Amino acid sequence: MNGGAVRRWSRLAAAAAVFAVLVWRLGTGPFLDGIHAVDGGSLAAASVLAVLTTTCCAWRWRIVAGGLGVDLPLGSAVTAYYRSLFLNVTLPGGVVGDVHRGVSHGRDTSDVARGLRAVAWERSAGQVVQAIVTVAVLLVLPSAVPAAVPLVALAVLAAAAAIVALAVRPRHADGRSRWRAVAARELREALLARRAWPVVALASTLVVAGHAATFLLAAHAAGVSAPPSTLLPLALLVLFGGALPNVGGWGPREGVAAWAFAAAGVGAAAGVATSVAYGVLVLVASLPGAVVLAAAWARPRTPEVLPRRNGAADV
C-alpha cells in the first residue's frame, strides 16, 4: 500500500473513530437532531452566504493566479470553485475538489504544476488568515475555552515561521534551494506583493465571516440559545478544527464541536447537532457545483488556453 492510500485510509479511520466515540458517549440523537433541524429558511440563507464566500474565494484565487502569471476570469473562477466545493464535501479526503480545480486550471494554461501551486498558495493563505481571525476573536471576546487560545496562536506562529523561512533567499544553488527560491519568489509575487496581499486578506476575512455566520445559522436552527458572543468563538474553533484531515469535512469538526460546546457549558450534544446541521447546510449550498460538474460531463472538453503574463516563475 503506497503513502497516498495510507493517508486516505487513515483519514477514513480517524473520522470513523471520532463518530464511534461520539455515538458511544452521546448516542445517535444529536446527529438526527442536527439533520432534522435544517429547514427551508436556513437552507436559503446558507445558500446566499455560500454565494458570498464562494465569490470571495474565487476572487482570492484569481489574484493569486495573477501573481503567478496567469489570467483567470472571475466568472470562470467562481464556476470552478463551486465545482471544487461540491467535490470536497462529497468525496473522502476533503481536498479532491482543490486538486481537480488546480489540474483543470493547469490544463487550460498548459501548465498543470503552476495551476496546482496557485491553488495550494490560495488555500494556504486562507487558512493563515482564518487562524489569525480566530486568535483575534478568542483574545477580544471572553473565551469559554481559554485552553484553545495557545494552540491556535501556536498554529499562527508556525505559519508565520514557515513564511519567513520561505521568504529568506537560499545561499546555495542545489536542487532543494532552487525549489525554495521558486517558492520564495511565488510567495512574494502571489501573496505578499502590494497588489495582492490586501485583496487576499480582505477576501479571506470575508470568507471566514461567511462561514462563521453559516455556523451561527446552524446553531440557531439546532435550537442553541447561547448568545452570539459565546457562539462566535466556538464557531471559529470548530471551523479551525474542521481544517484537520477529514472526510468531506466530517469527523474532526464534530469532535471539536462536542469538546468546545461542552467546555463552554452549552453541551456536547448541542455542539454535535450544530456541527451536523452546518454540514448539511454546506452540502446543500454546494449543489450548484454538481450542476457545473454535470454540465462539464455532458459536453466534450475543449480547453481554453488562458494567456500568461510576463515574469512568471517557472519550475
Residue windows where pLDDT falls under 50 for at least 5 positions: 310-315
Run of helices and strands: HHHHEHHHHHHEHHH
State the shape: globular
Largest sheet strand order? 1-2
What is the count of DSSP helices, taking H or I runs of 4+ residues?
13
Strand content: under 5%
Sheet bearing the most strands, described? 2 strands, antiparallel
Rounded to an integer in angstroms, the radius of gyration calculated over CA atoms is: 20 Å
Compact summary:
This protein has 315 residues and is mostly helical. The protein contains 13 helices and two strands, in the order H-H-H-H-E-H-H-H-H-H-H-E-H-H-H. The chain has a two-stranded antiparallel sheet with strand order 1-2.
Describe this structure in words.
With 315 residues, this protein is an all-alpha fold. Helices cover 75% and strands 1% of the residues. It has a two-stranded antiparallel sheet with strand order 1-2. The two termini are 30 Å apart.
What topology does this entry show?
Layout: H1 3-26, H2 29-37, H3 40-67, H4 74-90, E1 92-93, H5 96-108, H6 112-140, H7 148-167, H8 175-191, H9 197-221, H10 228-241, E2 246-247, H11 252-263, H12 268-285, H13 288-298
Antiparallel strand pairs: 1-2
